[in-house]
Amino acid sequence: MAPPPEARNRADGPVYGHLVQARDIHGGVTVHTAPAAGPVPDVSLDPPRPATATRGRDDLLTTLRRAMRDGEPVPHVLTGPGGFGKTTIAAALAEHARAEGWTVFWVRPDTILPSMLEVAVELGGAREEADSFRAAPRQAARWVWRHLDSAPRPWLLVIDNADRPELLDPENRPGEQRGWLRSSPGGFVLVTSRVDDPALWAPATVHHVDSLGDADAATALTDHAGGQRSPGAERLAARLGGVPLALALAGRILATHGVLFPDADALLGHLDQDLTRLDALSAPAAAGEDDERRLLSGVWELSLRVVGERNPQAIPLLRVLAVLGADSNAVPLRRLPLSELAEGPMASLDEAGLARAINALVVHGLVTTSRQVTGTVSLRLHPLVSETLRAHLGPDSEPLLETARRLLEWRADHDLALEMGAYSALHVVLLRLHGHAHPDTVRAHIRFHRAVMLLGFEERAELGLRDIVDRSRADLGDEHVETLRARHALADALRARDRIEEAEDIYLAVFDARERVLGPLHPDTLSTRHQVTLMAALRGDLDTAEEGFRALWRTYADHSQEDDQVALSTLENLSFVLLYRGDHDGAEEGFRRVARFRATALGEMHPTTIDAHFGLARVAFERGDHRAAAEAFGRVVEWREEALGGDHALTDQAREWRERAIRSLGSG
Questions:
Q1: Distances from the Cα of 551 to the Cαs of 359, 416, 538, 571, 591, in angstroms?
Q2: Which of 97, 129, 474, 578 could join 586 in a cystine, given CB atoms 3.0 to 4.6 angstroms apart?
Q3: Which among 421, 419, 403, 423 has a CA at the least distance from the CA of 411?
Q4: How far is Cα 79 from Cα 211, in angstroms, rounded to an integer?
Q5: pLDDT band for position 9 (cuts 50, 70, 90)
């Protein structure tokens, strides 16, 4: 009996391959295979082979080997900035696993689906089944992990460069182990990532990978250079900050360009002022490799792109921090007020946005945080990261540089080591962009030498400022605003060296020029007027000094500028004059007012706030209250030790006065 017509062209059940359905066929039949959806992914499961021994990571590798051997029930994650050696550590663990007879699988998140399907095929899964899961990632993950869990021999799975964790699971936190990242009784899972967020990876064990110590860094450099310790290897390794990628590039240059650079000292001399040359020299040797991850600039730029995708405001913030935090100087959060960030590239930042931007930089290993005993939170960049970022600041970075300058001037003379390093870095960038004759370049150089002077290196500051004055006079003219600023700063350096007459001559000439060019009430003019009056006090002409300070203070008061920092210096110096003339009540009132204003504007631990407390201690001493004076000088010693250092001249000054008060107390 023939089937009914409606059932003659029907197929039931699963169909594999091609199915041709036809009612009536006349002639031949040709079946065309459907074209592939796209190119077959080039999936490699082979781990990289370390070119040299892995230096400085013995403890970490021991921990990983033990965890692998003991079958710890959670994945392990290596985090840290690009170029710090995470992949190298993973490759070393893979070498160990292979030597122990383990199967090693090495995958990257950007090809996670085809790679993991290939893992399952390697473990005996059917190719046809693997192909059927390509459009179903969740089912694919379960299928792959069933094969991993039941593998006939132990395996190590490395997921390298998981810098976008969402690729491991776009819907859940990777640590939940519902996607491609899971633990297994069949083997051990290791992940490398720039994202240093333990909460993201929990309950995985997270290991932060840092730069190498000095000895290990020098040895690593020697390994990459061919094994022969080169003169200057320690110095070059230190200059490169112990960053493994930089050491590898430098070693490659020494091995390849032995004629140009016969030893590490020669290469250091070539690189010292411009570390971007490291990439330029090593790029030919890196041909055919993934340059973005193989060159110094590439690893930072890749990090910036990853961060910028999630938090665009973090990028300009990082570049500003690269200027403020030069030489690995810590940048206190108080140096990043929203009021000063309200202009330029970060104008839209609010308090929550600033916190998110900072957290993004910390999570991606570009910035570290620290908390002082006083509770102050600071941000710090690795010196090689900040230097590389500054080297790529171009003409389009002018708004960022202006933001950095504004932040520095907002709390001038507050964090002298930070300011010296920041102004040095800013000067180098501006010199590259504008040349030495540009006013912005000159101003940054002046501010650098001012910080040098305030840190107690007056002779060095004087020499540098004399050179700036000569250049500015030739390039900008004798009465240009920056030339006058340089001349005033030079007089400050001479005054700090007790060369009063030379300083006074310069102050008088600058005051005359500023009064004509800028006007009598310009802040720069009033600043020089203050210094001219101070010279009279230092010469012992107290009548002229008192009259001059009182008149200048009235000028500030008449314009409601009593809280101006020069105005407060005027009141402070007037108080010292009154102290010398025996008006203890007038001096005490002045010092207290100065201390109150400065504490509000600059903070209790600002060096100039402490100076006002030193003045109050002097008042107690001159009144004969030596017990109160000894206690007050003791507090000033403690504060100056914390703010300036134990060996600073002003700290020694306070110690001498404390001992003098104690001796007077004993003799009384």
A1: 50, 31, 18, 11, 18
A2: 578
A3: 419
A4: 12
A5: low
Inter-residue contact 622 to 584 (CB < 8 Å): yes
Give the span between the Cα atoms of 602 and 3, in whole angstroms: 97
Sequence length of the chain is 668
The answer to whether the beta carbons of residues 662 and 636 sit under 8 Å apart is: no
Q: Which of 18-22, 41-45, 412-416, 516-520 has the lowest mean pLDDT?
A: 18-22
The pTM score is 0.74
Are 393 and 424 in contact by the 8 Å Cβ rule? The answer is no
Rg for the chain (alpha carbons), in Å? 34
Measured CA to CA, the distance from residue 281 to residue 379 in angstroms comes to: 32
**CA–CA distance, 566 with 412 (Å, rounded to integer):** 12
**Model pLDDT, residue 284:** 53
For residue 252, CA distances in Å to 92, 295, 630 come to 20, 12, 62
Mention every residue, 6+ apart, whose C-beta is less than 8 A from residue 592. Answer: 612, 616
10 Å CB burial of residue 19 (0-12, 13-18, 19+) is exposed
Q: State both tokens at 12.
A: 């039931």
- The partner residues of 352 in beta bridges, in order of sequence, read none
State how far the Cα of 30 lies from the Cα of 38, in Å rounded to an integer. 24
Pairwise CA distance, residues 306 & 196, whole Å: 13
Cβ-based neighbours of 354, under 8 Å, separated by 6 or more: 317, 336, 338, 341
Q: Where are the beta strands (DSSP E) in 43-200?
A: 76-79, 103-107, 155-159, 187-193
Contact 536, 546 (CB under 8 A): no
The tens digit of pLDDT for each residue in 138-193 reads 999 999 999 999 999 999 999 999 988 989 998 889 999 999 999 999 999 999 99
Burial track 582-601 (b if 16+ CB lie within 10 A, e otherwise): ebbebbbebbbbbbebbbee
Q: State the Cα–Cα distance between residues 445 and 272, nearest whole angstrom.
A: 19
